[in-house]
Amino acid sequence: MSEWPARILLLALMAGPAHAHDAPHDERLPTIGPAPDFTLVSQDSVRVSLHDFRGKVVAVSFIYTYCTDVCPMLTAHMASVQEKLGSAFGPKIAFVSITVDPERDTPDVLKEYAQSFGADLKGWSFLTGDPAVVHEVGRKYGVIAKKAANGDVDHTLLTSLVDPGGILRVQYLGVRFDLEEFRDDLLSLLDESK
């Protein structure tokens, strides 16, 4: 057995965002490049593409519903930030959670998972699709996923922020990043677009 899954688990447990935040808050967030587009299927069995969110700030994360540790923690953190965004959530800021286990995470399973976390589905999409397509989307965002024999999926836990113009701006690694900073980054990208 290689050390590859252990490295992924280590990456998923690392604290902090994947970007440096040494700049004062009045400076723009860094630009990584065009966010990779995708078309997948939502919890409502509707085709959803990243370009459907043009004009909104989007947080894209990768999870799976059978995960028992970091995925539910990340989803719960995002749900708490969703609440703190108030009326901006939905019309101006959206969350997208993409499964890394599309074989088991059907639209119905994703919908039940979303509801269990109090996700506001007017602004939060849970996506699945053909396994090869989902794998490719993850790869383009820097997410590596590998299914273990017991069905668990070792994967990098990466949350990406995309600005209203479709540009990838910030990526947070792990689940222990500062939620206030995450919220502030979402609002900062929204302010930039005004």
Automatic annotation (TrEMBL):
Pfam families per record: SCO1-SenC (PF02630)
UniProt-listed InterPro entries: SCO1/SenC (IPR003782), Thioredoxin-like_sf (IPR036249), Thioredoxin_domain (IPR013766)
Annotated Thioredoxin domain residues: 29-191
Disulfide bond residue pairs: 67-71
Protein residues bound to Cu cation: 67, 71, 155
Transmembrane region(s): none
Highest taxon of source: Bacteria
GO molecular function: metal ion binding
Signal peptide (residue range): 1-20
Native organism taxonomy: Bacteria, Pseudomonadati, Pseudomonadota, Alphaproteobacteria, Hyphomicrobiales
Protein's UniProt name: Electron transport protein SCO1/SenC
UniProt keywords, alphabetically: Copper, Disulfide bond, Metal-binding, Signal
Family: Belongs to the SCO1/2 family.
Entry keyword annotation includes tRNA-binding: no
